[in-house]
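Quick one: structure for this chain?
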Amino acid sequence: MGEKIICKRTGKEAEKMEKSPYPGPYSDLIWNNVSQEGWDEWLEASLIMLNEYRMNLLDPKHAEMYDKQMLAFLNLSEEGDDPGLRTTAVEPKKSEN
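Got it. Here's what it folds into:
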């Protein structure tokens, strides 16, 4: 069994992912605070956002906006640091405990 974390996105205890799914400055933050389930929710939401806003991640402004939205979606951003882009993502499921 691997190390356990409390996912900031889902609020559930889960095993830590084997490695960070995202390179760069937020790599450790995501790895230490987001479960695979939470990350999968982001991937689904990010595809919607990328298509809807026609974002090009090679554009530094778009890449910065993407990172800010990702952090807000995963509940990892500083308060008030949400760019407010709409993602028609799935809300986390309520725990049945």
